[in-house]
Amino acid sequence: MNTTDDGQPVGEDVPVGFQLMGTAHLGSPVSSMLAAADLITARTLAIEEVRSLHVPTGPDELGLFKDCCQACSIRGAGLAVQYPCPTIRILERHGLA
Question: Residue 82 forms beta bridges with which residues?
Fold first, then answer.
């Protein structure tokens, strides 16, 4: 056993509070990691779905934009949104595009 100069043990004993409480109050690290992984998977799928909707479709009817966003533009009504649209720019700004 390691001891200090005054003979007290160093680091071998479990603190009394942990002996009484155990570690159950800390929660299971495995369940926390699985919940975090599920959340990451769900968010990744949502971002992929948004990206699949907001894709370039070519020039608009008036020739103003080289590429228009498929989800944001309304074809036939002359309402074109240049690609990358605000949605894709937000994803890019946060490194998710």
Answer: 68
Q: Is the dihedral of CA 11, 12, 15, 16 positive or negative?
A: negative
Residue 57 CA, distance from chain mean position: 28
Please list, in sequence order, all residues whose beta carbon lies within 8 angstroms of the beta carbon of residue 68, skipping any fewer than 6 positions away. Answer: 56, 57, 58, 59, 60, 80, 81, 82, 83
Give tens-digit pLDDT for 44-74: 999 999 999 999 999 988 888 999 999 999 9
Q: State both tokens at 31.
A: 């369940």
Domain coordinates of the chain in residue numbers?
55-97
Distance CA 76, CA 32 (A): 50
Tokens of 61: 């009817």
pTM: 0.61
Are the C-beta atoms of residues 89 and 96 closer than 8 Å to each other?
Answer: no
